[in-house]
Amino acid sequence: MTTKKPSLATTICQGRISLTSCVYNASGPRTGSSAALAKIAKSEAGGILAKSATVESQTGNPQPRTWQSESASLNSEGLPNYGIGYYLSDDVINEVKASGGDKPYMVSISGKNLQDNLTMLSDIVKAYKDNKSSISAVELNLACPNVIGHPIIAYDFKQMEEVLNAVSSLMKKSKSELPLGVKMPPYFDGPHFQNAANIINKYVGIVSYVASINTIGNAFAVDTHSEMPVISSKGGLAGLSGPAVKHTALANVKVLRSLLNPDIDVIGVGGVSTGEDVFQMILVGASAVQVGTCHWIEGPSCFGRISDELIEIMNEKGYSSIEEFRGKLRDWSKEGASASRAARKAREAREKEEKEANDLLKQAKPNLFDIVNLVLIAIIAMLAADKFGIMS
Ligand code: DHB
Q: Does 339 reside within a domain?
């Protein structure tokens, strides 16, 4: 019997953007140059999202500005990027399109102030008008923790509303249909989720999606040997990402999905490095999933690996599309928990049996070293027998 391969296809921005795979890159490391973006385009990623741009090109914070451990990464890059003009240029777009065909190319902006964001947004709206097929969406970063002297916008609800108000006016005035997403910081408390969602819900029709979460701001790591911070700028404070933030990200996606207007998609991001992570993000309501730190560490081949792992899970569970399980997280129940425990025990027993069988096989099978020894002993015995005339 042949089974049909499950589809990872999805749409975002109320169906206006089609992605062949729900997995694509987050804005961040490995997204700053056309060469890096072309590599993402060539990979199994469903879309391509550029590094958050500023009006002018800038080199970012001094080195060292990144650090990695097994479970966590710190980054305080300070928005190194080539300036918005670069990400909208024909050269960059042509290189990306030549590598990725029809995959959506999206840009991201993180202005130093509101005026910078509006200036960049006007440029993007114009580029979108001039050539609709070149840019699919813009992600407005309301959550960058690493710019010295600039607190995270979306932690200041008054400022966040002012920014969205001004952005909304610009979009309405220009009559642009350019899909707009907002990148949000993680929230940790009920009223904060509610405040953020209430504000964003006022802009339904303008804000097409929310990407949640950006790094957890202002984390710290110590170099024990030198007794110093590992990061040189901002007193060593930096954005935390990687597997350590996954559960915060899942909580944010789940809660925001429940509070936001259904016409605003939630894109899950934060600590995703396996197909199982993507599966869980979709289960709690994500329309698509971005991968940041894992892409940084592993490179664009991560999109193929993660997609294969997701397909395997979908096959095991009998899902043929992500629509079949999106947002379908079940309520906790005694029956579910005991079924899960039984499945885990059965799996552990199976794995134990397989290991024991393998060990037995290894013991029974003479290894190459034993065979060579036996042959050598036989040759020596034959030579000795020959020499002492035993064979004659
Ligand atoms: C940077 C970090 C972020 O978390 C972000 O959203 C944008 C930029 C940076 O340090 O470059």
A: yes
